[in-house]
Design a protein that fits this description.
The structure is a single chain. The protein is mostly helical. 78% of the residues lie in helices and 0% in strands. The protein has one domain (29-249). The protein has 10 helices and no strands. It is globular, with a radius of gyration of 26 Å.
């Protein structure tokens, strides 16, 4: 005891262990981050209209060229309309995929997105959904144009299902490969070289299934192609989810 009546703490009492409090960075909810990235791309495109205008112009020119080339041959129109549909979707979609992450890199915001406290896969799915929306808009416009110019009804539920499934697979693997080629100097040339061999199963299945639907064949002729498209979509989504983190690290 001290002279003032106060107790002096012992050594064991004086040494108090200090616990370090780990400050956790706030982590954004996964699907909220995905929706925010997709909405950012859609809103930026609504303001600029640069990408969608170029895709629409390419689509219109392609359909007009094929329509004039096949004007006098109705049988050729019937047999080639699905090929025209998917060739136009793929090449118009390439215009959007080439700008998927390239615009972020050119603006200097790609590093900020990669450093954000979200899962890297959320960035991938956000970009993929944005690309998918653009491709589906082009596909819808294209189906209306082909219906009018080729005089063949393409707005059918089964055909719309095939377009959606094919577009999902195409944009999924396209977004992954565009993230691989974003740092290359000739990325606009490199992306089609990388993409076309990988997306070939999607295109073949979509064309075969669409042809069977338009010709009103029985279900055993078009159902296997729908199943193949679905399985390809699942494989591409799973592979992209697993590989995107390593791709953007490089």
């Amino acid at each position: 005891m001290s002279a003032q009546g106060e107790t002096t703490p012992t050594t064991a009492e004086a040494v108090v262990p200090v616990r370090r409090v780990k400050v956790r960075r706030p982590v954004t909810a996964y699907w909220h981050a995905v929706a925010a990235i997709a909405w950012k791309d859609v809103r930026a495109e609504i303001r600029s209209r640069e990408l969608i205008n170029s895709m629409l112009l390419f689509t219109l020119m392609t359909v007009m060229i094929f329509s004039l080339a096949l004007e006098l041959d109705s049988n050729a129109r019937q047999t080639t309309v699905t090929g025209v549909l998917w060739v136009t979707i793929v090449f118009a979609g390439l215009l959007g995929l080439s700008r998927s992450l390239a615009s972020e890199k050119d603006k200097g915001s790609l590093d900020g997105l990669l450093l954000a406290p979200i899962a890297r896969s959320a960035l991938f799915f956000g970009k993929m959904i944005g690309n998918l929306l653009f491709v589906l808009v082009i596909a819808l416009v294209l189906m209306v144009l082909l219906t009018v110019l080729f005089n063949i009804t393409l707005l059918r539920p089964l055909l719309v299902l095939l377009v959606v499934l094919g577009s999902i697979g195409f944009t999924t693997i396209g977004t992954l490969l565009s993230s691989m080629s974003v740092h290359a100097r000739s990325r606009e040339t490199l992306l089609p070289i990388l993409l076309m061999p990988v997306v070939l199963p999607i295109v073949i299945s979509a064309v075969r299934g669409s042809t069977a639907v338009l010709n009103e064949m029985p279900s055993q002729d078009w159902l296997p192609w729908v199943q193949l498209l679905f399985m390809a979509d699942v494989i591409y989504i799973a592979a992209s989810y697993a590989l995107f983190d390593y791709v953007v690290e490089e």
